[in-house]
Structure formats: C-alpha cells, structure tokens
Amino acid sequence: MQSPTVDAVMAAERAASFTKRSIKASAKVSGLRLALSMLDLTTLEGKDSPEKVRALCRKAVLPNPADPTLPMVAAVCVYPSLVKTARAALGSAPVKVASVATGFPSGQYPIDIRLDDVRRAIDDGADEIDMVINRGAFLAGEYGIVADEIRQVKRACSGSGAHLKVILETGELETLDNVRKASDLAIRAMADVDDELGTPGTADFIKTSTGKVQPAATMPVTLVMLEAIRDWYLQTGRAVGMKPAGGIRTAKQSLHYLVMVKETLGSITGAGGCPWLTPAYFRFGASALCNDILRQLDWLATGKYRSGHDYSEA
Fold it and tell me: Which residues pair with 5 in a beta bridge?
C-alpha cells in the first residue's frame, strides 16, 4: 500500500490558515450549535460510576436546561462495562452509545480478548465501537497485522449494524507520513469488509486519539486525516467519517475545525452539500468542549458571560 508523503511545513501552515477566518455572529451561532450536535460526550476514567454515566446521559439529551432549543449531542462514549447503564439512561433519545473496546487504550491485548470486548459491548447496546490500533505493530512495519485486526473488529461490528471508529493514536505515530499511512490503512481495511459483506458506504470513522496520550488531536494531524478521507472519496465515491479527539477545549477551536472540514471536503460532493458537516460524518471527542460552547452561546444571546460553574460538569 503506497501512501503519499506529507510536507509537514505546508501542513502546519495550511492548518494555521483555518484559524484566521472571520466568522460573523449569526454564522458563529449556527457553527456552535452544529459543533454541539457533533459532540461525543466522554468519560473514560478509572473512577467512572453508573451515576456519573447517568449524569452524562442527562447532559447529552439536554445540554443546557435553560435552553431546551439546543440540539442533543451525537453520542456518549463510555467503557464497555457501563454500556448497559448508558443505554438504559438514554432510553428512546436519539443519542448514540459509543464504547471504547479492543483493549483501550493500549491496543496490546490478544485479538481474541479484544473481539470479545467488542461483542459484549454491542450485546449490551453499543451503537458505535471506538477501536484503538496496535501502534507497536504499526511502528514495527507489521501493517498486515494491523489491517487484519481492523477487519476482524469491523466484521464483529457489521453483524449488528454498529459503526466502527478506528483510533490511530496519532501522538504515538511520530510523523505525519505515518498518520497518512495509518489513515489509508484503516480506511481500506474497513472498506475490505464492506466489499466482502456487500455493504459499502457505512460511514465508519477514523479518529485521532484516545485522549490518554499527548499530543492528541492537532489541526495538522486532522488535516492530514481529512485529506486521506478526501482522496478516498475522490477515488471511490465513499465517504468516511472523522473524529478529532483530545485537546479540543474551546468553542473557538471547534469553529476552526469546522472551517477546516468545509474548506478541505466541502467542494468535493457537488450540489448535495458537505456530508462531513453533519454528526453522521464528523464528531468531536471532547467533553470539556461542551460547556465552553454553552458559555459562548449564552454570551452571543445575552452579551454576558456566565461562570463555568453555572453548567454541570457531566
């Protein structure tokens, strides 16, 4: 598999250019509401408890009780052991349950254990599986092993209709060339299973990070991954989703990412619009981002900033 090389200097300059766009107030409100609808509210801590997950689900459905017109978030993301709790707490709300399975965050567990992890999470009600690749195998040049593991997890998801997000853990991949190679590898491995099962175009995702390694999501890394998605779409007509995760904490940053999506992918789909500017194809993995979006929306509506403690943490 041959991936193009990446000019790291130009990628950094291009990514920086997206932070310099001027956005008017009305467009800013629309952008922030869109970003809110793209959030995967996440709790992945050793102290996670059923009540913490239930609180997260309440916030997912009603991000700001003072403004019930705001959209729900896209998903809540929890450990496999708490999927049942999330599923029950969400009830009939159209918020997805995502679960990190497959030996998160290291990806170093035997594949049979990782697949069992996936199946249990799906049986308990997970709509989406966030799989982390084995970076050790990737960096050792064992690309066939990495691709085969992605295919096996994709097969485990496909039988239930669950979507797969492949986490590259870009902070450990060392170079943008490796980020591009891993992006191409993951996209093609998922597509292999779609072709095998006759289900092309199921909107699976590639994702930057677990949030446990620094650096996590950065704009140059996300740009390289978006370009891999663009090139795949131009080659095949199939859209793949994107999820930057970790390190995106402010509403202003979320708008920068949406500008990058629009300018990188918005011109390739014609009159049908840009599917990546929807929660079906783009997510933010950033729980801390939620309250800053709410705070900015309140400021745009009232001209006053509310204190951070006016919003629930969950």
Answer: none
- CA dist 291 and 173 (Å) reads 31
Q: Which helix (H) or strand (E) holds 101?
A: strand 96-101
Q: How many helices (H) and strands (E) does the chain have?
A: 11, 7
Q: Annotated catalytic residue: which of 165, 204, 207, 298?
A: 207
Among 90, 75, 92, 78, residue whose Cα is nearest residue 48:
78
194 is annotated as an active-site residue: no
Residue 207 annotated as catalytic: yes
Which of the residues 127, 130, 184, 298 is marked catalytic? 130
Distance (Å, rounded) from C-alpha 215 to C-alpha 277?
A: 25
- Answering whether pTM is above 0.85, one says yes
Active site residue 112: no
User: What architecture (CATH level 2) is domain 8-310?
Assistant: Alpha-Beta Barrel (3.20)
Catalytic residue among 84, 154, 181, 243: 243
Helix (H) or strand (E) holding 225: helix 219-236
Instruction: Express each pLDDT in 137-195 by its tens digit.
Output: 999 999 999 999 999 999 999 888 899 999 999 999 999 999 999 999 999 999 999 99
Q: What is the domain partition of the chain in residue ranges?
A: 8-310
